[in-house]
Amino acid sequence: MQKLAILIALLASPPALAEEDRGRDLMAEALRLFMQGFMAEMEPALEDLQGFVEDLNAYHPPEILPNGDIIIRRKTPEEMGEPEGEVEL
What domain count does the chain have? Predict the structure, then answer.
């Protein structure tokens, strides 16, 4: 959050015209630091999301029945490409 505060402070106080290039460099550096911190904090969530997406591959797309019910069928081991009888732990 400190990096975000630095970025906001840099954006809120524009540099003098003579120091425009230096100010642009500082803003770019602040943005780079902010993005590094953001990605470091988001990495665990992105890994969880990747596992979630892999879990979704175990199901067929949702089907809407004529009565309005929505069903989501699990794929069989053959459809998943796993040999029958083996259990993945």
Answer: 1
